[in-house]
Amino acid sequence: MPRPEAVFDGTEGDVLIEIYECPDVPFSSYTLTQRLNPNLQTATPEYRTAFAHVNSVIEDHFVSGLIRGKRSKSADGVFFNKLKLTYKGERAAIQERNRRTEQEKVKQLLDVAALIRRDAEKR
User: Using an 8 Å Cβ cutoff, are 68 and 82 in contact?
Assistant: First the structure.
């Protein structure tokens, strides 16, 4: 029996999709945090919280065999550098991107159906 596809909500999926869509960008925990939180200023408590969350997601993906890279240490603690998706990670990123796209299409179709219903009620 095939296993169900994993669902990566929020940052978990964002990390995979970001790395997948930019294969030639040398990602690190820092660059992913900045790309996923462009409105945050570095050296703020909010940025440090976002960094810790992104780093935790990266660690989880490492454990799952979705991401590979180099572990380094900085003043913020351990972080990851030269992040790349594994073959398994590429598959997961594609599946997650498709899942999100399908959800958007369903939402658009429901919006169109609601407009048609409202138009029919006006007549």
Answer: no
Q: Kindly indicate whether the domain formed by 11-122 is annotated with CATH number 1.10.10.10.
A: yes
Burial label for 4, CB within 10 Å (0-12, 13-18, 19+), is exposed
DSSP of 28-48: -HHHHHHHH-TTSPTTSHHHH
Rg (C-alpha) for the chain, rounded Å, is 19
CA–CA distance, 54 with 33 (Å, rounded to integer): 6
Helix (H, G, I), strand (E, B) or coil at 57: helix
**Single pTM value for the model:** 0.77
Between CA 22 and CA 95 the distance in angstroms is: 16
- Domain chopping of the chain, boundaries: 11-122
CB atoms within 10 A of CB 65: 12
Q: pLDDT per residue over 71-107, tens digit each? A: 999 887 889 999 999 999 999 999 999 998 887 888 8
For 28, left (φ over 0), alpha (ψ -120 to 50), or beta?
beta
